[in-house]
Amino acid sequence: MPCEISRSPTATDRPTVMIGLDELARELGIPPERLKRIWPRLHRDHGLPRKHPCGWSWPRALTTAWLLSQNGVPVGDTTNDNHPDRAADAHRAQVEAQRAALHQRYGGRA
Hints:
With 110 residues, the chain is mostly helical. The chain is built from four helices and two strands, in the order βααβαα. It has a two-stranded antiparallel ribbon with strand order 1-2. α1 packs across α2 (32-46). The longest helix is centred in the C-terminal third of the chain and has 23 residues, at 84-106.
């Protein structure tokens, strides 16, 4: 079943099943290219619904509810989305957890 991507002017005007990339970016006040980069962070940190697996569209009802519930989600800034310290710390923590699991399982044997 193909995705139905909306072409309405705003997210709340005409009820359709899905809201497209351009429309959601316009509602958030950011370029579509930026939304493509930051949507996982918006999903993880702020609860944006997951996009549909067939492309760049989101469920309209959930996304509209999310848009109406947001007050001050900082999506318009143009700072770098990468946090090298956070990424390095997460990697170190994962390696340490794997190392501890291996040590527990094999008792420190090489």
